[in-house]
Amino acid sequence: MKNNSLPRLDKDEALRRELLKFCRLAPGDIWIDPVNQHKVGCLDATSSSDMSKLMDGELASLAIHDPPYNLVAFKERELKEYISWCEKWVANTWDILGNDSAFDIWLGADQKNQFQPLPDFMIMMRDTNFEARSFLTMRNQRGYGTQKNWMAVRQELLYYVKGEPAFEVQYTDIPKILRGYYKKVGGRVTENLERSKSKNIRPGNVWVDIQQVFYRMEENVSGCYAQKPLKSIERIIEASSNIDDLVVDFFSHSGTTLIASELLNRRCFTVDIDPVYCEITIRRLEYFRKWGKLGWQNGNPFEKELGWPTPEKSGKKVKETQERISQPTLFRN
Ligand SMILES: C[S@@+](CC[C@H](N)C(=O)[O-])C[C@H]1O[C@@H](n2cnc3c(N)ncnc32)[C@H](O)[C@@H]1O
Fold first, then answer.
1. What is the tens place of the pLDDT at every residue in 250-298?
2. CATH number for position 122
3. Separation between Cα atoms, residue 158 and residue 233, nearest integer Å
4. Mutation to probe ligand 1, out of 217, 233, 256, 273 (largest number of atoms < 8 A from CB)
C-alpha cells in the first residue's frame, strides 16, 4: 500500500507555510462551487461582517460546528477568553439561521481539567436564545484489532434549536435483539420486534456505531488532525434538514460537512480561518467528484505539487460511489 500521508499540519508549521502557495483563497475570499453552489470561505467565524458576507442574505436550516477546543489544560483566564470567543460565533450562528432551525456543536470535555470547556460552554449557552434539546456522546475507538494502539475516545455533541425544527428519527445498522411481551395492542400482547417500525435500533444519545477516522479508511484526509467521521455528520444532516436545505459549518477543516452535504443533496456554506484547510476542503469535494473517493486514505491532497506519486496515474474512478454512499468503506486500496 502506498503511503504519501502528510504529517499533522498543526505540528509542522514549515510544511503548512509551504502549502499556502497552493491555496486558492486568501483571508476574506469566498469560493463558490460552480456545480452545486456550495461556498467555502476563508473567513473568521467570530466576525459578524464575515458571516453576513458568506450568507449574502440567505438563511440556513442547520448549523453544525466543531470548534477547536484546546485540550491543553485551560487556565482560568484562558477558559474565560475561550468562552467569550465562543459567544461571538454562537451569536453569529443565531443570525445566520432561519426560524425553526437546528444547531449542533461538538465539544470536548477534559477529564483531567474539570471537564472543560464543556460545562462553561453550556452555562454560556443558557444566556442565549437557543433552547437545549439533547446532549449526546459519540463513543468511538481507535486502533481496532491492535494490542498497543487501542484507545477509547468520546466526543460530546450538544443539540440546540431556534424555534421548533422538525426532527427525523434515524436508525443505526445494529439489529434489534431485545424481545419483550410487555405491551397490549388491541387486547393482544405484542412483542417489541413486531411493534417496531425498523429492524434496527436507533442511535439514541450515546452513539456507539461510528468508527473514528484513521489512516486506513478511505475518508481519511491526512494532514488534518481533527476530522469527524462522515457518518456522524450525515446522521445530523438527515435528522435535522431536508433535501436542498442550506447547512452551515463555521469550522470546516477537512471539509466533512461539505462532503456530507454533497452526498445528501443539501447545499453547504462552510468557512475556515486557515487558507490551507479551505483548500483541502475544496480539493476534497473536487477529488470526490472526479474519482468518487471520500478522502485520500493514506495519500494526500497536495500530492501533485509536492511531487509525490498521484493516484490519478493508476486509478480508475470508483464505480459504486456514483451511487450515494452513506457508509464509507474501510480498508479500500
Ligand atoms: C476541530 S477542527 C474542525 C474539524 C471538522 N469538523 C472536520 O471534520 O474536519 C476546527 C477548525 O476550525 C478552524 N478555525 C479556528 N478558528 C477559527 C475561526 N475563528 N473561524 C473559522 N475557522 C476557525 C481551524 O483552522 C480548524 O481547521
1. 999 999 999 999 999 999 999 999 999 999 999 999 999 999 999 998 8
2. 3.40.50.150
3. 13
4. 273
Q: How far is the CA of 143 from the centre of ligand 1 (A)?
A: 25
Q: Is the CB of 222 under 6 A from ligand 1?
A: no
Amino acid in position 234: E
Taking only the tens place, the pLDDT of each residue in 170-187 is 999 999 887 777 788 899
Domain hosting residue 142, numbered range: 13-174+203-322
Instruction: Give nearest CA residue, ligand 1 atom 11.
Output: 251
Flag whether 51 is in a domain.
yes
Judged by DSSP in three states, 137 sits in strand
Asked if the structure places residue 89 within a domain, the reply is yes
pLDDT given for residue 263 in this prediction: 98
In a domain, 35, yes or no: yes
**Closest CA to ligand 1's atom 1:** 68
- ∠ CA 167-173-177, rounded to 5°: 105
DSSP character for 269? E
Residue 1 lies in a domain: no
Window from 20-29, 86-95, 175-184 with minimum mean pLDDT: 175-184
Q: State how far the Cα of 220 lies from the Cα of 222, in Å rounded to an integer.
A: 6
- Is the CB of 278 inside a 6 Å radius of any atom of ligand 1? no
Residue type present at position 260: A
56, with CB counted inside 10 A (0-12, 13-18, 19+), is: exposed
Better-scored residue on pLDDT, 113 or 247: 247
Total domain count for the chain? 1
β 267-271/246-249 pair status: parallel
